[in-house]
Amino acid sequence: MPAGPVTRIVADLRTLPRQFWLLAAGILVYLVGVDLSYPYETLYLNGQLDVSMTAVGLILGVTLFATLPMQVIGGALCDKVGRRPVLVVAMLGSMTLYIGLGLTRDLGVIIALFAFEAAFGWAQFITASNAMIADLAPPARRAEAFSVSRVALNAGTMIGPLLALPLLALDPSLRLNFLASGVVCGTVLVMALVLLRETRPPAVHAASIAITFRGYGRVLRDRRMVAFCLVALLPLYGFGQIWVTLPVMLADLHAVSATRWSVALTVYGFFVVVMQYPVIRALRDRDHMLLLSLACAAQGLGMGLAAFVPWPWTLACVVSISVGVVLLIPITSTVVSRLAPAELRGRYMGAWTLVYMGGYALGPLLGGWALDALGGREAYVAIAAAGLLGAALFPLLRGWTRAGTEGAGEREALEALGD
C-alpha cells in the first residue's frame, strides 16, 4: 500500500540529521525569547520614552547601518573559526540588549545597547545558523531545510507574543518582558555550548586559513550574487517595516492597541508556521525567481492595503504578508547557498546577512521618517510600490542565478554530522 502524503513528509524530515533538528530547536527557543520583547520595542520608545517616530527610525536604522561591517567579519569568522563560536557570540549580544533594556530607561544607554546587539546579536545568528543549515542539508534539500528553520522561527514569533500578554498585564512598562527575553536567550546559549557541534566541513577549514578576508573579493566579483542582492533590497525594505513602523501606523490610523497587535502577530505566526514547510516542499522545484516575484507581490500588497482597511480586516493583510514571507526568506537563503562555493559559504552568508540587515535597516530609517513626514497611507503606498517593482525585476534574473559551485568534502561532513 503506497504511503500517504503525511507519511512521506515525516519520512523525508527524518532524513535530516540530528544536529539540524537541535539547531531548529535552538532557533525556536531563541525566537520565543526575542518576540517576548521585539514587537513592542518601537511602542516602548515611542509611547513610553516619548521618542518621535523619526528619531526611532534613526536610532534603529543608523545603529543597524553603522554595525553592518560586523556582518562581513562574522561571515569570515564562520569560515575561519567556526559557525558555533559565532552563534555563541550572537546569544551574548541578544542577552545584553534585553537585560539592559530591563534595567535602564536612559536613552543614551538604550541606543548603545541597540548598537551592540546589531553588531553581535541577531545578524550574527542569521549568518552562523544559515551556514550551519547549508552545511547540514544536501543541496537538493536546502530549500526544505531553510523552510523548516523558518517554521521554527515563526513558531517562536507566534508563541513569544502570546507569552508576552500576561507579562504586559503584570507590568505594562515592558520591564518584565525584557528581562524574560534575556533569560530565554541565555537558555539558547547553554544549548549552543552543550548540544550543538561544529558543522564546518574540514575542507572549508583548510581553505579558509589561506583566503581569510580576501574571499570577499570573490563575492563582490560574482555578478549573479550582486544583482540578486540589489533586487532583494526591494522586498527587504517592506519586510523591515513589519515589526517597526507597522504597529505604529496601525495604532495611528486604525486604533490598533498593543493587545490587538499581539493578536495580529499571532495570526501572522500561525499562518507562516502552517504554510511554511508544505508550501516550500510543494514548490521546491519551481523557478525560484518566479516564487520570489510572487513573494514580493504578496508582501507589498498586504503592507500597502493595511494602511487603508480597518480592524479586523487588517488581519487579511497580515495573511497576505505572511504568504510573502513564507516564500521570501527561505528561497533567498537557498539561492545564496547555491551561488556560494563551499569554501566561501560563510562569507556569502555574511554578505547576504549584510544585505538582509541593510534592507531591513531601511525600514526604520526611511519608514520612520516617512510616517512623520508623509503620513501612514503615503508611506505604505511606497512600500507596496517597492514590492511590486521587486516582483517585476526578479523574473529578469531567471537562469542567471541557478547554479553555484558545491565544494568538496560536503558528503563526508554530512555523514559525520548525521548521527
Quick rundown:
The chain has 419 residues and is mostly helical.
Global geometry: globular
**Count the strands?**
0
* Element-by-element helix/strand order: HHHHHHHHHHHHHHHHHHHH
Termini gap: 30 Å
Fraction in beta strands: under 5%
Backbone CA Rg:
20 Å
Report the average pLDDT across residues.
80
What's the number of helices?
Answer: 20
Structural class: mainly alpha
What's the structural domain tally? Answer: 1
Low-confidence stretches: 206-211, 403-419
**What is the annotated CATH architecture?**
Up-down Bundle
* Multimeric state: single chain
Percent of residues in helices: over 70%
Q: If you consult CATH, what is the topology?
A: Growth Hormone, Chain: A
Describe this protein's structure.
The chain is an all-alpha fold and 419 residues long. It has one domain (18-406): MFS general substrate transporter like domains (Growth Hormone, Chain: A, Up-down Bundle). 79% of the residues lie in helices and 0% in strands. The chain is built from 20 helices and no strands. It has helices spanning 5-14, 18-35, 41-48, 53-66, 69-80, 83-103, 107-120, 122-136, 142-170, 175-194, 202-211, 215-221, 223-239, 246-254, 258-283, 288-306, 314-339, 345-373, 376-393, 410-417. Helix 2 (18-35) runs parallel beside helix 9 and helix 16 (288-306) packs antiparallel against helix 19 (376-393). It is globular, with a radius of gyration of 20 Å.
